[in-house]
């Protein structure tokens, strides 16, 4: 699946769009996507792939847009405590780190 995401990012770049690629680089505890999961975002707000199963993707897309603007990569950290997880219906908490960079 990761190849399709990279291929989509390459197609967007070939069409003249700016693109950023987000990659899960670390997880602790419960995480919806494993290390290596990727999501591509273009400057029109299109997305391909997934880094979280939906729960943090809007924040990642927002940071991807910033990365496309300023060219700076970002390391994002997201987490939920065990107590918070139980309140929203999850079995346990966890953390995920996502690296976001513009594709040139």
Automatic annotation (TrEMBL):
Pfam families per UniProt: XdhC_CoxI
Keywords assigned: Plasmid
Organism this protein belongs to: Azospirillum oryzae
Name of protein: XdhC family protein
Highest taxon, organism lineage: Bacteria
Domain called XdhC- CoxI: residue spans: 12-79
Coiled coil, from the record: none
InterPro entries in the cross-refs: MoCofactor_Util/Proc, XdhC_CoxI
First and last residue of the signal peptide: none
